[in-house]
Amino acid sequence: MRARELGVVVGGLPTGPLNAITDVEGVLVGHTTLDDGADLHTGVTAIVPEQLFATWRLPAAVEVGNGYGKLVGSTQIDELGVLESPIVLTGTLSVYRAADALLSYVMRLRPDGLSFNCVAGETNDGFLSDIRRRPITERHVLDALEGAASGLPGEGCVGAGTGTTALGFKAGIGTSSRRLVIEGVPVTAGALVQANFGGVLTVQGVPMPAAELVPGAGGAEPPGNSCMIVIATDAPLDARRLGRLARRAIFAMGRVGASYSNGSGDYAIAFSTAPPHRPRSCPTRRSARSSPLSWTPSRKPCSTPSSKPRPPQDRATPATPSPTTGSCASAPDLSGWGGPPPSTMSETVSVLTGWRDRSPCVCYEGAEPA
Prior knowledge:
Elements: E1 27-35, E2 41-49, H1 52-55, E3 58-67, H2 74-80, E4 82-83, E5 87-91, H3 95-109, E6 119-123, H4 138-146, E7 165-166, E8 169-170, E9 173-182, E10 185-195, E11 202-203, E12 206-207, H5 210-213, E13 227-233, H6 239-252, E14 265-272, H7 285-290, H8 312-315, H9 321-330, H10 345-353
Parallel strand pairs: 5-6, 13-14
Antiparallel strand pairs: 1-2, 2-5, 3-4, 3-14, 7-8, 9-10, 10-13, 11-12
Helix pairs in contact: 3-4
């Protein structure tokens, strides 16, 4: 069950057909799930933009909300503003094996290459999975990459989200999308979240503490553990504007009640599947402010703040809270290495269904309660 099916609608913008990151044309998602029914609950999630294979360079940016994490490949994205590989997510102690497997995948497709920047992120699923076993193999990563598809990705306890918890509930992988029009051009922004962070679940401004609302809620949630957010868009944004988009994704964690704890590595990666266009020529500062989102190339490009009209990073912000609540709603019951999760799917659905009864909601983007 998805959060939107429960009436949890964030923002007033329309979604794509799937309400998923795969609504951005060419973006594929694949999962490999490892679950032995006992102490092993982990996996791999791969985000594969098909446009990457044409040039092996897509505009990209990384935003670090709290750097307590192991995001392999992030510094080169910061330096060059480009993505050179698919993005792989997994558990913390398997991230290096995942990065090495991703390197094998990229080297096979680029036989003449001598330098590769592979991007692999992680969150710590050691509460529900025996993380020290480091069970992820190259085959697991290749299966996720090679099996990536354009349909609705699995959510909840799948792939890299198999053993994660968030906001007092069993969580996992979540995804959503939003469509908007910028200067007459329709664009899509999609997000995929590996939710594994602390705080109090907040639904459109209404706190929903598991300890208060779920009788006999499971064991104490482990501190920290992190959140990985991947944002894809077909808007022709350069690295600077993608950085602004990624920052909004980190901000949006606060809307669902994130505590941003010391041990939580909170990262957002944003990339565009379209070549970036430069602003029109602007002989004066005044004209620069009048068309900051113009995407028409010119002989005299100028770099201006994206302030008017309302830029995509502001309007697409609701795409991040949605997959976080969706990851909780989609996650099935699961017990593992550290005991039962704080609260399970049936309890999550009950809480989310009753969120309207708590207090008047705070809606965003002019949205009305469903």
